[in-house]
Design a protein that fits this description.
single chain, mainly alpha
């Protein structure tokens, strides 16, 4: 029973550290992307592939 409690405590500590790291990254501007939006309109879209329709000729 004490092993389960120990694992729960360790899991909560690990989850809390990941949450703290995520909050720190967001507040420090790690996810701010100031470069891509300016050039996003320059990227070409993929050209659509046209399908050829095969028709049979009647003899």
């Amino acid at each position: 029973m004490s092993v389960i409690i120990l694992l729960i405590i360790i899991g909560i500590v690990v989850a809390g550290s990941f949450l703290a790291g995520f909050i720190w990254a967001v507040k420090s501007g790690q996810y701010d992307d100031t470069y891509s939006p300016a050039i996003r309109m320059l990227f070409d879209d993929a050209k659509p592939v046209k399908k050829k329709v095969m028709t049979r000729m009647k003899p």
